[in-house]
């Protein structure tokens, strides 16, 4: 349970609130206790917790009121509009801290998160600081984590800016709002707000982009201090009906940039790159039917002209993404087939583990290593052997197992299930295994490396 902190709101104000933490909520009664307790138990006590509820009907609002009654640092605001952006803007208006933090109310944070970030922000006079984080789900009674590390090893713990280090601020390094602290003066001076579109879908994108354009001093720290849930059934990522919301968000961002005269080459590149990555991601999450509607909508939208080299964008990747979003049939079929195969692999590997006491993987190549990593991530300890027909592989230690012959694996584990993990040639191995007496229904073929990290947890969270 949360520890009651005997600090009056007036006392906090007298000492100056260091961090205002905004918690937007709507029907998160299952998660809100863990979330708000992780915030109230922060080692940094000079905080205010601004809970903005959009009309919850599952008891969330009552739980927030109970916390506010116990801890005077908590303030509950009722939003009359079901809009994530509107909720966040109410929170910003109420904030009094030097910095503003955001915690999604189905997530939770490390007890030292805000102290570590605030201290670094003050010591380095930062406009923005962000921490790394973990994706997580609750699976089979266990909490499963997949760490996220930004691809900016040389830029951690350094003060950077968009102009000097544009690569470090491109997508996906800078696409999350909830793992950071934002200087309130920068927000107020530049009137930065969220897009107040209906519902809760992608309004964080506009805030993240606009704030980055105004921030002069930015730092990333490698500590994983935020835990980001991937198995909330109500998350917008699972909603096909919201296929066009992301385009509306980018049109709003474009309009805001025009009004604010944010038109230099770096800003245009940042916007163009974020838009392209976001649109491709959106296409990947949608069903083919919703995806076709999304692509049809895009055909009337002029793509922005920008210099991707300014932010280190790969030209081949950009060309592929632009052709894909233009509806190139060959690329689209390949893209969707790969997504379908990846999801199928996840389901089959899980079904295999649920129905087996032992698993043997053949052969000992890269796909095998990925299957082992897949099971290890989920805490499934059923792989008993790795086998290969190649004599030069047998006897080697690979992925924690001494590789043995297929014949020996069958002899030692006749009742095991077998995963044929190879891109090509699976038919011959299946024929060999059935010839050795393994029932075909106990053999699964995986022709590509399975989903990992966030993609895996999101897929499992939706099963």
Short summary of the structure?
The chain has helices spanning 9-15, 32-40, 60-70, 84-94, 113-123, 184-189, 203-214, 245-260, 265-285, 288-298, 315-325, 329-354, 366-377, 406-412, 426-435, 453-461; strands at 19-25, 47-53, 74-78, 99-102, 108-109, 128-139, 142-148, 180-183, 218-229, 359-362, 383-386, 397-398, 401-402, 417-421, 443-446.
Describe this structure as you would to a colleague.
This protein folds into 3 domains: 9-238, Spore Coat Polysaccharide Biosynthesis Protein SpsA, Chain A; 285-333, no CATH class; 346-461, Rossmann fold (3-Layer(aba) Sandwich). The protein has 463 residues and is α/β, with parallel strands linked by helices. It is built from 16 helices and 15 strands. Strands 1, 2, 3, 4, 5, 6, 7, 8 and 9 form a 9-stranded mixed β-sheet that branches. The chain has a 4-stranded parallel β-sheet with strand order 11-10-14-15, with helices on both faces. The protein has a two-stranded antiparallel ribbon with strand order 12-13.
């Amino acid at each position: 349970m949360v520890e009651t902190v005997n600090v009056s709101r007036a006392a906090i104000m007298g000492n100056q609130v260091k961090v205002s933490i905004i918690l937007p909520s709507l029907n998160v009664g299952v998660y809100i206790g863990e979330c708000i307790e992780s915030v109230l138990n922060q080692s940094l006590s000079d905080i205010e917790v601004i809970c903005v509820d959009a009309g919850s009907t599952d008891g969330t609002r009552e739980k927030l009121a109970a916390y506010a009654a116990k801890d005077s640092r908590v303030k509950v605001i009722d939003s009359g509009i079901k809009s994530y952006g509107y909720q966040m803007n109410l929170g910003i208006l109420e904030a009094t801290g030097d910095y503003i933090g955001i915690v999604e109310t189905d997530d939770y944070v490390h007890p030292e998160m805000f102290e570590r970030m605030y201290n670094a922000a003050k010591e380095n006079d930062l406009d923005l600081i962000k921490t790394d984080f973990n994706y997580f789900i609750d699976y089979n009674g266990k909490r499963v984590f997949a760490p996220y590390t930004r691809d900016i090893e040389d830029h951690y713990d350094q003060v950077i800016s968009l102009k000097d280090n544009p690569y470090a601020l491109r997508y996906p390094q800078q696409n999350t709002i909830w793992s950071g602290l934002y200087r309130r003066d920068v927000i107020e001076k530049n009137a930065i707000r969220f897009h107040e579109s209906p519902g809760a879908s992608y309004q964080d994108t506009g805030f993240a982009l606009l704030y980055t354009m105004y921030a002069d001093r930015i730092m990333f720290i490698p500590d994983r201090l935020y835990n980001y849930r991937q198995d909330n059934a109500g998350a917008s990522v699972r909603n096909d009906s919201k296929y066009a919301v992301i385009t509306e968000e980018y049109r709003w961002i474009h309009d805001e940039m025009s009004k604010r005269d944010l038109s230099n080459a770096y800003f245009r590149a940042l916007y163009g790159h974020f838009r392209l990555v976001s649109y491709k991601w959106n296409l990947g999450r949608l069903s083919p039917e919703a995806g076709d509607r999304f692509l049809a909508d895009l055909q009337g939208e002029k793509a922005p002209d920008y210099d991707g080299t300014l932010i280190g964008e790969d030209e081949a990747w950009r060309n592929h993404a632009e052709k894909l979003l233009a509806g190139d049939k060959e690329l689209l079929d390949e893209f969707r087939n790969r997504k379908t195969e990846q999801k199928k692999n996840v389901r089959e590997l899980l079904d295999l583990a649920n129905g087996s006491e032992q698993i043997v993987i053949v052969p000992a190549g890269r796909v095998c290593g990925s299957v082992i990593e897949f099971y290890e991530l989920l805490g499934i300890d059923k792989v008993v052997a790795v086998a290969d027909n190649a004599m030069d592989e047998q006897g080697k230690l690979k992925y924690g197992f001494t590789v043995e012959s297929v014949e020996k694996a069958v002899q030692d584990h006749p009742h095991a299930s077998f995963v044929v993990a190879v891109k090509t040639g699976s038919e011959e191995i299946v024929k060999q295994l059935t010839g050795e007496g393994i029932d075909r229904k106990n053999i699964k073929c995986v022709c590509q490396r399975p989903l990992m990290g966030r993609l895996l947890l999101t897929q499992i969270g939706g099963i």
